[in-house]
Amino acid sequence: MAKEKTSEKSSYEKMKELVLHGHIEQGLRLTEAFLAEKLEISRIPVREAIQQLVHEGFIERTGKNGYQIKEYNEQDIIDLYNYREALDGMLARLFTQRVDASQIYYLEMNVEAMEEHLKDFNQETFSKIDLEFHRIIARGARNEHMEHQHEIILEKVLYVADTIYRIDEEKKTDLLNKETYIQTFKQHSVIFNAIKERDPDKAETAARESVNKGLKKALQVLSRRH
Fold this sequence. Notes:
It is a single chain. The chain is mainly α. Helices cover 78% and strands 4% of the residues. The protein folds into 2 domains: 2-69, Winged helix-like DNA-binding domain superfamily/Winged helix DNA-binding domain (Arc Repressor Mutant, subunit A); 74-225, GntR ligand-binding domain-like (Four Helix Bundle (Hemerythrin (Met), subunit A)).
């Protein structure tokens, strides 16, 4: 039984990686047989992995026995960011109410690392620090249900953003320039300072505003693509 669970989890992770990293073309009809062959595993763990990814909103049904990568339209993106805004806001509030000195320290180190990496800018490293900032808050809120949902939403937002920004390098440089990341650092600093001041209202507002600015940027990019 333990082996089966390990196999299912492995299949789920492998399939999710294919989706999140754009290794499966959007619009391509997927079947259990196709995915089993691609991942070189049997259909049973593939079936379980598909159901999980459908539940999480990364894959959707098409017809009787087919699936495809879910394509997000403008309203889907607005709904997704609105959900994340509410979740990030509540996590920031709970974190502020429940935080201890060690968690404040780790969050401060994260903000300082983000500022340091702006000097010798590397987009990939900066993005990892950005994600860890949100994960520190999610863990520190001490609500397992919300932390789990936050991780799913975080992955989904990253996937959607990556899909939106898959444009030519000239436009990408224009839309994702260093100033964009400086603004991210400033937003994180506002959230951190509110938490440090033990002001849950201010922390929640700052977290919500940060996500809302991300939505505006995503919609701006989407409009320019069309």
